[in-house]
Amino acid sequence: MKTTIDLPEELLIRAKVAAAENRTSLRELVIAGLNRILTVESETESQMRRKRLLAALQASNTKPMVPLTREEIHHR
Q: 23: phi > 0 → left, psi -120 to 50 → alpha, else beta; which?
């Protein structure tokens, strides 16, 4: 699908240089960048949902779970 994006000139120049240095096209550079950003956002959203779920499942009269150290595991 074709689209038009209005980019600041300095950013466009940097992007074209980066694409040339990596022997790829500006199109492929934009696709890779968007995929990377969207993947990171998706992972961040998943982590936030997980934290909210864990907080909702935790009883109000208990302390938050913390990982045990090796010494604490062997002591128990």
A: left
